[in-house]
Write a structure and sequence with these properties.
The chain has a five-stranded parallel β-sheet with strand order 3-2-1-7-18. The chain has a five-stranded parallel β-sheet with strand order 9-16-10-11-12. It has a five-stranded antiparallel β-sheet with strand order 21-22-25-24-23, sandwiched between helices. By secondary structure, the protein is α/β, with parallel strands linked by helices. The protein has twelve helices and 25 strands. It has three domains: 3-119 and 251-321, 3-Layer(bba) Sandwich (FAD/NAD(P)-binding domain), CATH 3.50.50; 122-248, FAD/NAD(P)-binding domain (3-Layer(bba) Sandwich), CATH 3.50.50.60; 335-458, FAD/NAD(P)-binding domain, CATH 3.50.50.60. 27% of the residues lie in helices and 28% in strands. The chain has helices at 12-24, 48-53, 67-74, 139-150, 165-176, 196-209, 255-260, 307-321, 351-356, 409-417, 422-425, 442-458, and strands at 3-8, 30-36, 76-80, 82-88, 93-98, 104-108, 111-114, 118-120, 133-134, 157-161, 180-184, 212-214, 219-225, 228-234, 237-240, 243-246, 250-252, 284-286, 293-294, 301-302, 335-339, 342-348, 361-369, 380-388, 394-401.
Length: 459
């Protein structure tokens, strides 16, 4: 009898694992059954804001492979609109409900891949039957919001609650669709993924787009009229709204795992080893936004829900399920986004992360330009580096600037990944031409400034 792999979750981690296992084990050797509760497999959730804005013309552009491709070309039994409700580790079986007809199925497994992703944070005040309130986690969520924005009467006033990546990107999308937009953030300003001095640059750019930012303002409720959302209630009064998008972050989707006895770590996500195995449970694997991993700089467990990690972790799990060997060695939290033409990148630790991890450090901010100052189109760029004292090892970096800014974070991520010091970085042989960089690249200018700051402290 062929071995059987059950995959729970048909997006990045789950389908990467299934595909890698299939590459290494033939159709007669391994049977693969995938349960996915939604309508789509292997799609880019990160692209949803650009579909909302109209920059991406249709949702099909965001789908890498549809279920039929996996069925036909990879011999997988992909069951859409099926939600796994029970994992029985003793009997080695799962129970799944068909969300279309209510039917129930039981399937045995030899290996189980748990890849349920993350779910939006939804406080009690956000639980409502009013129409016009949307999360933004799946392609189904994006489709529902698009339908609402295209409906008659079309909404005119949008309130986005939460100033993380999704909140900032959706706020921009709403502006591009012609709505008036207010972003409400419980913290002082949006983009808490960077330090406050860099986040203020992002906030200024958002205001320049016409987005109203209400910081340090907790939300306490929603108002409705005739079954439709009409306002967001805050501690300082109500903000009128025809559409509300919740961008309050996500948490690992672990309810099913916890009920089955899978261990959770201090972040609330599933604990796995470097091969993506769940400790103490042979044949049980997990990957993606539902697991925690090691931060290579702080050495602490972290939950960093990004599609880049999910795909890599799924690949590692699938290679191991297929009988070969692979490991996932951790993350450093590299991410980029944009607000209109303003680009934002970050990697490694923020100042508060470095303090929490017990590091002594210096931080510097260097102002430069994306191109030679005399070259047409030259724009400002701000680079922030955080370096350990006294070693000078890079701990983290952030960039805010215009064209050619965000992807420079990759240079800093490679330096961070390989444990370079800021002194090492001053000698990096980076490309130069006036259309692409000043003769001293912004990364090199920031590294030199960090070296000087460290030297000043040692005098």
């Amino acid at each position: 009898m062929a071995q059987r792999l059950i995959v729970i979750g048909g997006d990045a981690a789950g389908m990467s694992a299934a595909s890698q296992a299939r590459r290494r084990r033939g159709r007669d050797d391994l049977e693969i059954v995938v349960f996915e509760r939604g309508h789509f497999t292997s799609y880019s959730a990160c692209g949803i804001p650009y579909w909302i804005s109209g920059l991406v013309p249709d949702p099909e552009a965001l789908i890498a492979r549809d279920p039929e491709v996996f069925r036909r070309e990879h011999a997988m039994d992909v069951r859409m609109r099926h939600e796994v409700t029970t994992i029985d580790l003793e009997r080695r079986e799962v129970v799944a409900q068909n969300l279309e007809d209510g039917g129930e199925v039981r399937e045995r497994f030899d290996d189980l891949m748990y890849a349920t992703g993350a779910v939006p944070v939804k406080p009690p005040w956000a639980v409502t039957d009013a129409h016009g309130v949307f999360g933004m986690q799946t392609l189904d969520d994006g489709a529902a919001l698009r339908d609402w924005l295209d409906a008659d009467p079309q909404p005119r006033r949008a309130v986005v609650i939460g100033g993380g990546y999704i909140g900032v990107e959706i706020a921009e999308a709403m502006i591009q669709r012609g709505l008036s937009v207010t972003l409400v953030e419980a913290g002082e300003q949006p983009m808490s993924t960077v330090d406050s001095d860099m986040g203020e640059l992002v906030a200024d750019a958002m205001r320049g787009l016409g987005i109203t930012i209400r910081g340090s303002l907790p939300v306490t409720g929603l108002e409705e009229h005739n079954g439709r959302v009409s306002a967001v209630v805050t501690e300082e009064g109500s903000i009128p709204a025809d559409v509300v998008v919740l961008g309050l972050g996500v948490r690992p989707n672990t309810a099913l795992a916890e009920a089955a006895g899978l261990p959770l770590g201090p972040t609330g996500a599933i604990r796995v080893d470097r091969r993506m195995r769940v400790p103490g449970l042979p044949g049980i694997w997990a990957a993606g936004d539902c697991v925690e991993t090691l931060h290579r700089v702080s050495g602490l467990p972290v939950h960093v829900p990004l599609g880049t990690h999910a795909n890599k972790q799924g690949r590692v799990a699938g290679i191991n399920i297929g009988g070969e060997y692979a490991t996932f060695t951790g993350v450093i939290g590299t991410a980029v986004t944009k607000v209109c033409d303003l680009e934002v990148g970050r990697t490694g630790l923020r100042e508060r992360d470095a303090k929490a991890a017990g590091f002594e450090f210096v931080s510097v901010i260097a102002e430069s330009t994306n191109r030679a100052g005399y070259y047409p189109g030259s724009r400002p760029m701000t680079v922030k580096l955080i370096a350990e004292r006294p070693s000078g090892r890079l701990l983290g970096a952030q960039i805010v600037g215009w064209s050619e800014a965000a992807k420079r974070i990759d240079t800093l991520a490679v330096a961070l990944w390989n444990g370079m010091t800021v002194d090492d970085m001053t000698q990096l042989d980076l490309g130069y031409a006036p259309p692409y960089a000043p003769v001293w690249d912004p990364v090199l200018i920031a590294a030199r400034k960090a070296v000087d700051a460290l030297a000043a402290l040692d005098r």
